[in-house]
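Q&A log
Question type: sequence-to-structure
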Amino acid sequence: MKRYFIHLAYNGSRYCGWQIQPDMLTVQSELERCLSLKLGQPINVTGCGRTDTGVHARNYYAHFDTEKSLDNCEDLAYRLNMFLPRDIVVYRIYEVPAEFHARFDAVSRTYHYYLTQHKNPFHLEDAYYLYGDLNVEAMQQAADSLFDYTDFTSFSKLHTQVKTNDCKIMEAQWFRQNDLLVFRIKADRFLRNMVRAIVGTMLEVGKGRLNVEGFRSVIEKKDRCSAGESVPAHALFLEDVEYPPLA
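Response status: OK
Response body:
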């Protein structure tokens, strides 16, 4: 049995997230359907993590196992792209050691959340339009406080089946990118809905409804009801996933 990684990207607007769900269109279901047809056998794909309904991925990784030896992965990627919907693209397919795992061997994930403070018809699907002034300096101070914590229960979707709500934050930064305000966050793992809940709560800081100490208090309460509302999914992108070097 050989294991292959797939490096892909997708626009999540049409999809109910990455993971297969009954009677729902998902990225995983489309990828498995196309791979199974091209390889002439049932193929199960394991992704590097979940993305929620409407969330996009600029860089996503998944793996699949097959008894076939794929002699021309570049050609398979080309043929898959001819068959996949136009909102999913495969960049590369390559063989990895049989024990290398797309989810469990990832050492970090990086997300970007995009905001526009001016009405712009060209950012309808990739940025959240929020009118009004924001105190970005205070929002950055709130972001800096994330490094002082590991338990992010307050920013997790309720009733998820995870063993721990601990995450190690590696980066948390607000910055300008042309006409957009962007929040970049990198961690070893993320809880469901975590980034959107963090951004929504930081926006309360930016609007002056919550101070930085109040933001800290939200985290310390470990109560989702104490945090702000989640911001819309369409402005969230999985930007990168990092792995240890292959031997």
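Response note: The chain has five helices and nine strands.
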